[in-house]
Amino acid sequence: MRSLQSLVAATLVLVANVSSQDLTVELDQGIIQGSVGSTVSGVTFYSFLGIPYAQPPVGELRFKAPQGAPSWTGVRDASTLGSNCFQVEDSEVHGSEDCLFINVYTPQLPRVNHACSLMPVMVWIHGGGLVAGSGDPSLYGPGYLLDREIVFVTFNYRLGVLGNVLVIFNYLLGVLGFLGLSHSEVSLNNGLKDQRAALRWVQQNIEKFGGDPARTTIFGESAGGVSVEYFMLSPSTSGLFKRAISQSGSVLNPSAYVDTASAQTRAQQLTQLLGYSAEDNDIYNFLMGASAENITIQQSNVTTERRASESLAFVPTAEKETGSGGEVFLPASPLEILKSGNFTHVPYLTGFCSAEGKFLVSTIMSDTWDKLNNDFESFLPYDLNLTIGTTESQHAAALVKKTYFGNQTASIANVEQYIKLLTDTMFLEGILRTVNFRLRHNSPPIYFYQFSYQGRLSYSYIFKYNFTFPGAAHADDLGYLFTTSIDHEELESNSTELTTVDRLVTLWTNFAKSQDLGEGLNLTWDPVEESKQTYLDINTDLSVHNLLELHPERRAVWDALYSDVDN
Question: pLDDT band at residue 322, thresholds of 50, 70 and 90?
Fold first, then answer.
């Protein structure tokens, strides 16, 4: 790997050799001027940052669906990022409501190389529990991916209450993105609608950056992976993508969806925390007058019905009417749509990190062990449809607790068992159930993986989770797909870390290019089928295994508990 100093020097030389005219792109919105950069291996690329893909959702547009992208006169500077959406970082609120920006990275521009052919496009949807995150290159840099002749996009979207190619975009987070308030002036699922607006922008504009809109792959991790699956369920996203990758996320994860009644309850809790009283009479106007900063702070204080969705109160819910929300994104619950088979059928790559739960217990609360031992029912996923306190719920809790802890008292001494419980309930079971529903309905190829590798680019290593037992934590795979600004040890050119980078980037971009996934890796990785279920384990070596032999004892318990729900 080249040193940072040599990359900076190379970039300065590139800038000197590229005219400002070569760095401009003319969109229907207006002209933008980007900047030039260099991948880790020295490939030149062009960056166009902070492009607005929708009107700023401010003022009267706060809880509305995204509106058409603004235009401008003159040349807009696209060398710096736009604002992130409101979120809490280190106990302080950061960001802006004016945050719907998209970023495009491309190794070629048609105006510079007229003979170039259009390249596949990979659009990244960031994670962060729908309450945090952005498309910022400090976490999702293009320095590995753009070596593989693709266009990369990222973006921001509204988060939390304000929110309910390769391109990166921002979307509204938290309450500002996922407010579940029933009101004629409130659009539901605005964070997902922001994402849809960003994908529509990609379809309309990416060819001008050298990308092929007909070969667009969406991919994301955690809440971004959940969003990818929502795109595959929504009837309003048809034609916006041809392939999909979901990393550690499923619409059937317990923190991915809330029923309409619970969404209403949470929205009412929020208004009370913000100081609403009956005398105010109009909840909508009360929330319109509340500061985005206060909304963002208070949304984390809204309580949920189950531990599995704790601190993630504002998530997608079904839309029965459009109201002022425009085109419906989610007409029914994810489970209903998956059962019906009425979803987008495209090639799909999905999987998980082998010890996802390490991330969730890296800062474990002191009262967790007491709650595990004395209130285990609250750890059961809500979608088992069990009422806490009933005999059925108590029997299910006893079965699950015995499966993971035997006759032992839950404590730091058996934290590995708690991590297995979290890995299964929060991630793996939902992902596997989604795969099974797709197999029922004759889905196109589905590829399944387990990321097990632990190295010096793993977040669990960098942030010192300090677990001695093996397994990759939630988000450990990200350091092997994206360049970041996070400090890490200098890596030898023959290190297993850089080998893993090469393998993961090769697999993902092969998929986006519709190539044999194992091309260049001496690997045969077959899709999951009813008669032959295999998965790829990504560790120091790449190895293919029988999916039915992945934690069979634990899975048998969950298969039994979900049998009535899923059939």
Answer: low
Q: How far, in Å, CA of 417 to CA of 404, rounded?
A: 6
Indicate whether 95 belongs to any domain: no
Active site residues: 222, 356, 474
Max intra-chain CA distance, the chain: 73
- Run of H or E including 196: helix 190-205
Phi, psi of 538 (to 5 degrees): -100, 100
Q: Side chain identity at 244, as an amino acid letter?
A: A
Angstrom distance (rounded) from CA 458 to CA 133: 18
Q: What is the pLDDT of residue 314?
A: 83
Tell me how far apart the alpha carbons of residues 71 and 30 are, in angstroms, rounded to a whole number: 6
Q: Give the range of the structural domain holding residue 480, as residue numbers without chain letter.
A: 409-566
**Is residue 448 one of the residues assigned to a domain?**
yes
Task: Quickly list DSSP for 507-560.
Answer: HHHHHHTT--TTTTTT---PPP-SS--EEEEESSSEEEEEGGGSSHHHHHHHHH
Report whether 330 contacts 192 (CB < 8 A). yes
Determine, yes or no, domain membership for 470: yes
Distance, in Å, from the CA atom of 157 to the CA atom of 189, rounded to the nearest integer, reads 11
pLDDT digits (tens, 9 = 90+) for 373-412: 999 998 999 899 999 999 999 999 999 999 999 999 999 9
- Structure tokens belonging to residue 492: 């030898």
pLDDT at 167 over 60: no
Name residue 51's beta-bridge partners.
Answer: 102
Helix (H, G, I), strand (E, B) or coil at 449: strand
Contact 353, 249 (CB under 8 A): no
Indicate the DSSP class of residue 185.
Answer: T
Tally of domains within the chain: 1
3-class DSSP assignment, residue 100: coil
Q: Is residue 313 part of a domain?
A: no
| Distance, CA of 55 to chain centre | 23
Q: Which of 287-301, 305-319, 337-351, 482-496 is predicted least confidently?
A: 305-319
Rounded Cα–Cα distance for residues 429 and 562 (Å):
10
For residue 567, pLDDT over 50 is answered with yes
